[in-house]
Design a protein that fits this description.
Number of helices: 10
CATH class of the largest domain: Alpha Beta
Structural class: alpha+beta
Radius of gyration: 23 Å
Distance between the termini: 26 Å
CATH architecture of the largest domain: Alpha-Beta Complex
Largest sheet: 6 strands, mixed
Length: 353
Amino acid sequence: MSMQERLLQKIEDLKALWKQDGLDGLVITDNIDQFYILDFFFYPAEAVLLLNETEIICFARQLYEETLKEKFPFMRVVGQDKQMTAAAVAEAAKLGLKRVGFDAGKESYMSGSLFKAAGFVEADSYISSLRQVKDEHEIAVLRESNRIAYQTYEYIKPLIKTGVSECEVAAEIEKFMRMKGASATSFQTIVAFGENSANPHHSTSSRVLKDNEAVLLDYGCVYGGYCSDITRCWWHGDNEPEEYRKIWNIVDKARRSGIAAQAPGVAAQKVDATARAIITDAGYGEYFTHRLGHGVGLDIHEEPCNDQTTKAILKKGNVLTIEPGIYLPGKFGVRLEDTTAVTDTQAEILTRN
């Protein structure tokens, strides 16, 4: 399927959703949602899309005008450096649209107020719903993004020696991912040595690695607009404590069981429970302090999530992390994470070479 065919299919899927709610149009201001629809990146507040039954109209900064007209000949492009939201409202009135929806959960106060004053309707997050299920093209891009992350692990592990700092390792990780084609990191790279590894969201510091202590790496990259996420950890040195090896094996068993539990039709809550039970039964339940995993796509955290309260039922095309962990304050922590894609019958690990 060509890029244009994929784009038009997404728009048809979007129309089907807004028509169910009796809308005759939709305005899109979130730049990540705009990327999902157009496969074209705007920075925040650089464009507004207005869609109706017959037309796609893009109000965008004039510097994009010629590029957009060439790339999207079927889309009406309006060069508009300021007041794009107001221009979209005026155009909707001109076209006689009666019920235009907007995603209130992603809207700024100013734009949302303008839309409501114009009679626009607070709509469901249609695009967020569509983004939960990735098509074959998206899975392929996510596979490459996660392959880069895994290759980075293979590259960086032999370079981590006594005396290196967390910040130095993070810089090398990010440099390597860039050299492999990544455009950015998915989130702030986490490198944690020793007791820092017991903090699930440790802020990478100047802390230097010593002999015989824990190492934890949690990072990812953006490739083709899509995020990757991987966590790996190990003991640095020859005197690995028995407790560390025990915990590592428990967490790895939980990781493998969580991946195996994923399939279409399975409750995401059950996936979390399956992995969590292994850690709890081993006596470390109180030290697993976060959800089992989250959706990954254009954003690093998306729905659906594998957690204890979700009502989500997994579908083919969902992409989620499995990342159980055990964290012993003041000592060390172990988290092992893979990004996975739900297939016809099971889950495929994307964080691999």
